[in-house]
Structure formats: C-alpha cells, structure tokens
Design goal:
single chain; about 725 residues; 29 helices; 11 strands; about 50% helix; about 5% strand; membrane; DUF1549; DUF1553 domain-containing protein; transmembrane helix
Length: about 725
C-alpha cells in the first residue's frame, strides 16, 4: 500500500474510535496531527463526522412529518420544561452502524483522496506557511506605485492562460517536490490600520499583506492580466455575466487612469449586480431546488431590495435569523422555513455555517477531538430555535377559487430547557447560549431575536470575518481557509492579519458589501494573470497546497453565469435592465437549471449539481437551446445577424471573438479562421447550398466553436 492509503486506513480507524468515544489521549494526538497536516484529511474528517451525524439522526428519528396542517397556535401550546418525547425515544447507535458509516464513507472519498499521484509531498512546518505577516511599520497610501508592469500584448490562442492551466506538462515536478517552494519565512507583525481607513489605504494594506505572503513562500507573482482578461473577469464576478461588445469596447478604449475603479463602481450600481447577488444568496440560503413548499420569489424579493438599497450585511442577517410571519408577506422567513425540520438541527447547522463560518454539525453527536467545540455548544445554539414553530395557514378562498395555504413562522411563548442525548445514552440539558453569553430561557424572551442581536452586534467580529472570507473566495476561487465555512483553531487562515484587518474595516464601513467588493477587486492580486510564472508553479491550490494568490486561479462559470452569458452572446437586448423585468427571465433560468440539480434527502437539506463538465453539460453546450439561440441569424438584434452585415471577414471574426471571449483574435488566429471560413463556404456551395446560406453557416461554425471552447466556460 502507498503511504497515502496507509494514512487513510489509519484515519478511518481513528474516526471510528472517535465516534464510539473510545479514543485514547495518544490516539487523539495522532488524529489531530493527521487532520491538521493535510487539507484532504481535514475534508475526510468533516465528511465522516457529517455522515455519522446524519446516520445517527436518521436511525434515532426516522421520518417525521415536516409541516402539520395549521391549527390556531396558542401562547401556551407546549410545555415549558421536560425532555422532548422524540429525544426520549432516541436509541443508542450501535457499533455496527458506525462500521457501516466508515465503510460507506471510505468508498465515497477513496477516489477523491487517493486519486492523486502517489508521491511523497513533504511540507516542513505545515502550519507555519499559513501566517504571512509584514515588516512595514506604516501603510503606503500611494496606490499608483506598482512593482509589476502592466501587460498590454495580445495573447495567442494556444498560449491563453486558461489553456495553459490545463496542459498536463505545465508543472515539471518530481515525486519529492514539496507543496511550497521552501519553508516559509516568519515575518514580524505589522501595525493595523486606523479605524475607518481610506479606501486607498485599505487596498494598499491588502497589496502589502499579499506581497508578504509571496516573500514568505519565496515565490513571485504572475504579470498583470490584460484589460481584456480583467474586464471579462470582473463582469462575471460582480454582475454574473460577460460584458456586451459595447461594454467591453467602452472599457478597452478608455485611457482614464482610474478606469478600473470607475468600472467597479459602475457595476455595483448596475441592476444586474442586484439580481446576481440576490441569486447567489438565494442559492446559499435555500438551494437551487424549486420544489420545496416555500416562496422562493418572496425571499429573492427581500434580498433584491436589500442589495439594491445596499443595506448593511449585519442588518440583512438579523432579519433572516429573527424573521416572523408568513412566507408571502415577509420573504426573509423562507430561509428558516426551508430548514426548521428535524428539531431545527438543519437550521442550527446552516445558520452558523453561512453567517459565522463555523461547522458545528459534527459536534451534534460528540465533542470535537482537538478544539473547544463541544456537543453541548451545538445544542445551546439549537435551543435558540426551540420556540419557533412552522405552521400552515389557510387563506380565505376567493369566489370561484380553491382555498390556498401558506407557511408561516410562529414564535411560541415557551420557556424551559433543551435536552440532548450523549453517546453514552444520557440526557443532558442545554440552555440558549452564544459566544459565552447566556440568554434567559424564560417564556417571555424571544430567543431567536436575542440570537440575531448577539450575532450581528458590532462587538462580534465572527460575522464580519465569515463574510470577508466568503467574499474573498468568491473572487479568487479560494478563501483564507479551506473550506471557507470552517474557520477556527483547527483551520488557521492563510493570511490572518489580512483577514482580521479586512473584517475590522468591513465593520467600520457599516458592513458595506459594495465597499468590500471594491477593495477586493482593486487589489493587485485580483489584477494578476492566471498564467503560471516561472517562480510560482508551487502556488497551485488544486493539488492541495496553500493558496498564496500569486496568480488568478481559474474558476468555472456557475450554471447561472453560463445561462446569463449565453443570453448576452445571443442578443445584447436581452440583458436585464431592471429587476421588475427580470423575474420572468429568472424563472426560465431556474427551470433550465433543474436539469443539473439533484437533492439529497438528509438532515442538512443538501443538494448537488452536475454542472461540472459532465455529459449533460457538454450536450447542453453542443446543441442546447441557449447555444442555438446564439446561432440564430434570423433573430432581430442578434449578434450573428449584426456580424453578417459587415463586409470584411476580418471585422466579422473580430466581432464574434469579442462577443464570445471579450478579446480580439491574434493575427495567427485571425488568419487561420479566415482560411477555415473560406474552405467551409467552398465545400457547402459544392453541395448545392446557396452561397448566402453557406456563408452564414460558416460563421455559425466559428461562433459555435468559440462558445464551446474552454476559454468561454472558464473565468480566468
């Protein structure tokens, strides 16, 4: 067996002992050593704990009715104190279940954990390289000073950074190459920024801290991206689609020195910014599934209004956690309506994961082996939701219409204690407690409102840190921790001072999301090319190494980004100009997305998508309706119809390239495509195809090839 396989077997045995609470002190230390030294081992630990909790819950609870038909809810509907009946019925999980859990999980993660080349990857001081700090005592407020030259040359198609990232021989590594270039150098701490520092100072602070990380890892950054690469990247990341040809040309032709900042401010004021971020957070809050009995549009309307008004992030979170009322009237209620099943276990897990960046679901059944997270803490958070009940309200029927119903969140005047069962079968009490603050369990205290206040208060940095980490990962593909929603002692951030300072400035800005986006997008790191340079080949997080952000990591478009971008390549007039006109188009997009979505009937209400290079996605791109719309020359206002009105083959190809890839073709690419068009047209006319139709089909082939290229589907 390889060393990787031996470690996997050892880790599996240790996890089984952990779940059975038979772990000795030496075994606990060995488990900590393995998990903290390998990102894949950390993911194995999280998956194992998650699966164990799911099986434990499913055996103990079985299926339960999610939503009862509504009856009037009285103020004293439920008893104040006494263990829940379902908890008293819960059975102790046998060792056979744990063995089955281990075996099933081994099969599930074997390929992902062992599929890497079997090589020795030695990292000295694995946690040391996650603490890049600075030597400067003051922040340089001059953003104009740049050490890396701006690139302005065109890139050959064969040398495109996205294509280079897929070449098998781009890393000429040996079997003993470490995951980082050398042992990181520890640098002294740096002075923090003053409260509410200027935007210029914040961006400069980001640049310096990222540069310190490069120095510590002994790597050099890639050159700056071209304007073509950057403008496409920022449109996709900020408003969720590629730019139109008019938008791209406007930026590329501008000679203003601050055109990057101007564009970011313009994008955050664009209606598509609102629809994009409301879509992102609707997906995070309730998933992509449209079959749940909740009001998806009401939730998205709430988010649309919040992002349009640039409401502070802590206010948005407060509303989501403390929401009351029915699904139609108060859209924020739909978040908890989707997760308040199984005694609010899913609601507990997703609330802390999304808003606080902590995964506590693994402590549902046992204490965390090597940090301070305990089983009692999970149930203390869970007790904040125990006053809340989901009911179905019947609406008054209108003349000739069938009576309808809707879900509602109702807070009961119920006090008392939450009880949970330990692995030894003992019932233990848990009281509402968050971050060391205990809340009264009296019936006249609305626990969810108290939890929302504690989570969103200015003194609690965890909300800000979690949001900064998630936003950084959105723009770079990787956050300061992996995974982004598992922050804590056991998972140190790669750039702790940068994360902390950005969180402080985010709080000082009033939790201003647009301001946070501008800081990130104006940083030097965000402007880097995705090409590997000779001195940063080790900066490749795909192979498990620590991200140093010395280049832009290639990301695949989400299904939503692909859909909206294909609308742009078909007809720029289809671009959404305001949200009132967007909902019907967004509904069509959601229907189209369902072919990729699969739900899991588990306690976490999880779902996955097959939008990851599968056959379904490939067929959608090759002959799906969206691509066919882009190739429709008869559609009024379509890109192809406008291109074919041009007389010059050069102009036609340049416009198709700009429309699909946001760049002009290189001279070599242009010459080759002109030759192909000529040959294709000659062949079609020889087959008795009318000359005009032959020309149209030839350019359709060129456009189809652009849309089906890796360069189109990837964000680079």
């Amino acid at each position: 067996m390889s060393k990787k396989e031996v470690k996997l077997a050892e880790l599996s045995l240790l996890m089984e002992a952990l779940c059975e609470e038979s772990l000795s002190l030496s075994e606990q230390e060995r488990l900590e050593e393995i998990v903290l030294s390998d990102p894949d081992a950390m993911q194995f630990y999280l998956n194992y704990s998650h699966l164990h909790g799911t099986l434990h819950w499913d055996q103990a609870q079985g299926a339960e009715e999610l939503i009862p038909e509504a009856t009037p809810v009285s103020e004293v509907e439920l008893p104040a104190v006494s263990p829940p009946a379902s908890a008293r019925r819960r059975q102790f999980v046998t060792s056979g279940l744990t063995a089955a859990c281990a075996l099933g999980l081994l099969v599930f993660v074997w390929t992902a954990w062992v599929r890497e080349p079997q090589q020795t990857a030695v990292v000295e001081n694995p946690t040391g390289h996650k603490n890049p700090v600075a030597t400067e005592k003051a922040v340089d407020a001059q953003l104009a000073a740049r050490n890396s030259p701006q690139r302005s040359i065109q890139i050959e198609a064969s040398q495109h950074p996205m294509l280079q990232a897929q070449q098998n021989n781009r890393l000429k590594s040996t079997g003993t190459q470490p995951l980082v270039a050398m042992k990181p150098e520890r640098l002294p701490p740096v002075e923090a920024l003053p409260a509410s520092a200027s935007d210029e100072a914040v961006v400069t602070f980001i640049n310096h801290r990222i540069q310190d990380g490069w120095k510590a890892a002994n790597i050099e950054p890639s050159p700056f991206a071209t304007d073509e690469e950057w403008v496409r990247r920022v449109y996709l990341d900020v408003i969720g689609r590629i730019p139109t040809t008019t938008e791209a040309e406007q930026f590329l032709k501008s000679n203003q020195s601050d055109k990057h900042q101007r564009l970011i401010q313009k994008l955050t004021a664009n209606p598509s910014y609102v629809t994009n971020w409301s879509t992102i957070w609707t997906r995070l809050l309730i998933g992509r599934t449209t079959t749940r009995d909740i009001n998806r549009r009401a939730l998205q309307d709430f988010l649309v209004q919040s992002f349009a008004d640039n409401r502070p992030w802590n206010d948005i979170v407060f509303d989501l956690v403390s929401a009351e009322g029915d699904a139609d009237t108060n859209g924020a209620t739909n978040f908890l309506l989707a997760h308040l099943n199984n005694e609010a276990v899913p609601a507990t897990a997703i609330t802390t994961r999304l808003f606080l960046g902590t995964q506590i679901q693994c402590t549902q059944c046992h204490n965390h082996p090597f940090n301070d997270a305990t089983q009692s803490q999970f149930w203390e958070i869970n007790s904040f939701f125990k006053q809340t009940k989901v009911v179905r309200k019947k609406n008054q029927a209108r003349d000739g219409e069938k009576q309808s119903s809707q879900l509602a969140l109702v807070s009961l005047s119920k006090g008392g204690t939450t009880f949970y069962e330990t692995r030894q079968g003992l019932m233990q009490p848990a009281y509402p407690k968050y971050s060391g603050v205990k809340v009264s369990d009296a019936p006249d205290v609305n626990r969810r409102q108290e939890l929302a206040k504690l989570m969103t208060s200015g003194n609690d940095q965890q909300l800000a840190r979690a949001m900064v980490n998630r936003m950084w990962a959105h723009f770079f593909g990787y956050g300061f921790t992996r995974p982004i929603d598992d922050m804590g002692y056991h998972n140190s951030p790669t750039h702790p001072e940068l994360l902390n300072e950005l969180a402080n400035q985010f709080v000082d800005s009033g939790y201003d999301i647009r301001q946070l986006i501008e800081w990130i997008c104006l940083s030097d790191a965000y402007r880097l090319s995705s090409q590997f340079a000779s001195h940063n080949e080790s900066d490749n997080p795909d192979d498990g190494s620590t991200p140093n952000f010395s280049r832009m990591y290639v990301k695949q478009m989400t299904a939503e980004q692909l859909y909206d971008s294909l609308q742009v390549t078909a007809n720029p007039a289809l671009v959404v100009s305001d949200y009132s006109n967007a909902w019907n188009k967004m509904q069509k997009r959601d229907q189209w997305l369902q072919q990729f979505v699969y739900t899991h009937e588990n306690e976490e209400n999880d779902e996955t998508t097959t939008f990851d290079g599968t056959i379904t996605q490939a067929l959608t791109m090759m002959n799906g309706s969206l691509v066919r719309n882009s190739l429709d020359v008869k559609q009024e206002g379509s890109i192809l119809a406008a291109v074919l009105k041009e007389r010059s083959p050069d102009t036609r190809i340049k416009k198709l390239s700009l429309a699909a890839l946001t760049r002009y073709p290189s001279s070599r690419e242009l010459a080759e495509l002109k030759r192909l068009v000529k040959e294709r047209t000659r062949f079609l006319t020889s087959q008795n195809v009318p000359p005009q139709t032959a020309v149209q089909q030839s350019y359709q082939d060129i456009y189809w090839a652009y849309l089906n290229s890796n360069e189109f589907i990837l964000i680079h």
